[in-house]
Amino acid sequence: MVRAFQKFKPLPKALLSLLAAFIMVGLAWFLWFTVSPLFFNVSVSEPLMVGTEEATSAESLSVRLEGTFMGADAFHQVSGTARIIDRGSDTVVRLENDFRSINGPDLHVWLVGGEDYRDGYLDLGSLKGNLGAQNYAIPEGTDLSKFDRVWIWCQPFRVLFGSALLG
User: Nearest Cα to 138, choosing from 82, 100, 98, 97?
Assistant: First the structure.
């Protein structure tokens, strides 16, 4: 008579303990990375600095486009004002003092050319804080006519937190 199932040898306790510790550390890291930002606010208060010596007064600043943020859904909430401002020889996306976003892992500021990022986007860098005024330089030579929105985008989970339609 042939046995259909052989008896398996149990793993040594040391190996099981090591495996359990590895799983627990991985789970703890994942939870810290994904959940902990929800409990922390990072306030920023960057002045709208003048980019060059030629542009030394408020008259040299020019608002090209402006929009108001709306959250992507009931959980991913963003509010406040976004502006594209010429500061003499450079141009920035300015998130104003009223900017607020729920925090999340690795949030970025994007300029987007349509309702879908596949229509074209420009990553301006990591969000400096989820509260307050902040500036993001737009690379020289960027054709701003290709972009009509500012997005707050979560890189690791590829999730939109909120967007501002510019006009």
Answer: 82
First-to-last C-alpha distance (Å) of the chain: 81
Half-sphere exposure of 127 (CA within 13 A, CB side): 32
Q: HSE of 113 in the Cβ direction (CA atoms, 13 Å)? A: 11
Q: Over the stretch 95-121, which tens digit does the pLDDT of each residue have? A: 999 999 999 889 999 999 999 999 899
Question: Are 132 and 43 in contact, with CB atoms under 8 Å apart?
Answer: yes
Domain boundaries, the chain: 12-41, 43-165
- Is 163:150 a contact under the CB 8 Å cutoff? yes
| Predicted model pTM | 0.78
Burial of 102 (0-12, 13-18, 19+ CB in 10 A): middle
